[in-house]
Design a protein that fits this description.
It is a single chain. With 153 residues, this protein is of the alpha+beta class. Helices cover 27% and strands 39% of the residues. A hairpin with a 4-residue loop joins β3 and β4.
Length: 153
């Protein structure tokens, strides 16, 4: 069986409450993750993330439903892969952000995607999704870290 674990973490040079706002406020999310964001930040709230491919001028929209809002420690949402279907267990993946303050000015952010095993896709599609998202989170968390990087000098 292919490893379907999708997890990444990053140490960010900012307090947890600042990181929290950066991962939960639509105008902030647009700086490092999706190009356009709609988000009703409450359990059961819905939203969407729009990712634009500049090269092809195509956009992919992922619907989402918020699962957990526990500031400034945990934020999670289901994001859907099925058009016209509300994201939830069995048809989508749960994305969970966990924030841990390492100090007053430093926060460890961990992202884990689970639930891929419960989706009725062929194994090769699940493996492709896991690979794509491992790489994607590395890219997006890199962008997030850069937002807080101190300029040299």
């Amino acid at each position: 069986m292919t490893d379907l674990t999708i997890e990444r973490e990053i140490l960010i040079e900012a307090p947890a409450d600042i990181v929290w706002r950066t991962i939960t406020e639509p105008d902030q999310i647009a700086h490092w993750f999706a190009d356009r964001v709609q988000l009703d930040l409450r359990p059961g709230g819905d939203g969407s993330l729009v990712f634009e491919d500049k090269a092809s001028a195509q956009a992919v929209t992922a619907a989402l439903v918020v699962e957990t809002v526990d500031p400034p420690r945990r934020f999670s949402f289901w994001w859907g892969q099925s058009e016209g279907e509300a994201p939830g267990p069995g048809n989508s993946v749960l994305v969970e952000f966990t924030l841990s303050a390492e100090s007053n000015e430093r926060t460890r952010l961990r992202v884990v995607e689970t639930g891929l095993d419960a989706i009725s896709w062929p194994d090769e599609d699940k493996a492709r999704y896991a690979d794509d998202h491992r790489n994607g989170w590395a890219t997006h968390l890199g962008r997030l870290g850069e937002l807080f990087a101190t300029p040299a000098g």
